Amino acid sequence: MVATSPQQSDTQARVPTETILTPRFYTTDFEAMANLDISDRAEEFEALLEEFRTDYNRHHFVRGEEFDRSWDELDDRTKKLFVEFLERSCTAEFSGFLLYKELSRKLKHTSPVLAECFLLMSRDEARHAGFLNKAMADFDLALDLSFLTKNKQYTKFAPRFIFYATYLSEKIGYWRYIKIFRHLEQHPENRIYPIFNFFQNWCQDESRHGDFFSLVMQSQPRYLNNWLAKLWCRFFLLSVYATMYLNDVAMRPEFYQILGLDPKEYDLDVIQWTNHDSSKVFPVVLNVEHPEFEACLDRCVANVHRMREVDGSNAPEVVKGLRKLPLYASSAWQFMRLFAMKPIESPVGKKYQTNRQSGVRPATAS
């Protein structure tokens, strides 16, 4: 918890607790980014830039009278789970804002089209983060975004890893938001707070951002058309899917149950749709419908539950650590099994393979 100034009234400022499953803050090799050649797809980038400039949601994120009420009727457990959801979501959106804003600044003179795209995406992310932070204020809390800016630890990723990770983050965000929105449309009695009414338009921003990163990767075939790309795509797909599954099914299933969702069914549905979208960009995708895919993830969930039981015991810390070692080993083995599982070659991957055999450089990967 961070101390508040008198100007912050009664709203407490806070910084999220960092764990291996919390949203990360990234930086990259800006010089390498500045040297990207997008000339082969220049018209498509210009068209996408016009979409960003149009800013379809510029009047959407406005708090109406549905927010002007007390939320005291929510029980303490529901409030806690919902605030944690807001906190994680706000941190993720703010992380995107910082990365895109810095990229827009660094690329301004070398790649003005990319720079403006990143600038306008940072506008969207800032708008999302601000909207989430205002929602937290309804519960007398707010993320200290200035503290996060100055004090968060940043993970440096090479450009190709930034593209893999952000593409998947935006696309999986789209499916998470739209699935919740559609579910609550049919079950409004489970809509505990009006922010969920905004998710349909919200996820359209996520989808456009994902389309941008898809286009960036397609403009750099080396990120998609060789054996190394296949390995990295599999790694990032697995990392994103497993992180979401452990967060939702192992750590916070109650939140989704409050919304009337089965967290496991919800996550598997999101994974399948994200995998489908990814097959339009990545050369390979995971075989998420293989029975062992779900089984391996469920074994990891069981290991998380056992670790929490160990943490809640009265044993000395050294003993707790020793008891958790085989559980860590078991989860690592499950991840290795998932990574080793034979992937599915996508239509894009087959096109790249055909073009390599014929010696033709693909003009498009869509």
Description:
- The protein is mainly α and 366 residues long.
- It has 13 helices and 6 strands.
- The strands form 3 sheets. Strands 1-3 form a two-stranded parallel ribbon. A two-stranded parallel ribbon has the order 2-4. It has a two-stranded antiparallel ribbon with strand order 5-6.
- Helix 8 packs antiparallel against helix 10, helix 8 crosses helix 11 and helix 11 packs antiparallel against helix 12.
- It is globular, with a radius of gyration of 21 Å.
- The N terminus and C terminus are likely disordered.
Protein traits:
single chain, 366 residues, two-stranded parallel ribbon, two-stranded parallel sheet, disordered C terminus
Summarize the structure.
This protein has helices spanning 30-34, 42-54, 76-106, 112-137, 145-151, 159-186, 199-219, 227-251, 253-258, 263-278, 291-311, 317-340, 347-358; strands at 12-14, 25-28, 141-143, 154-157, 284-285, 344-345. With 366 residues, the chain is mainly α.
The residue ranges in which pLDDT falls below 50 over 5 or more consecutive positions are: 1-10, 356-366
For the sheet with most strands, the description reads:
2 strands, parallel
Structural class: mainly alpha
> Could you tell me the number of beta strands?
6
Measured between the Cα atoms of the first and last residue, the distance is: 47 Å
Helix content: 55-70%
Number of helices: 13
Order of helices and strands: EEHHHHEHEHHHHHEHHEH
Taken as a percent bin, the fraction of beta residues is under 5%
Average predicted local confidence, pLDDT: 89
Dominant shape: globular
Radius of gyration: 21 Å
Strand order of the largest sheet: 1-3
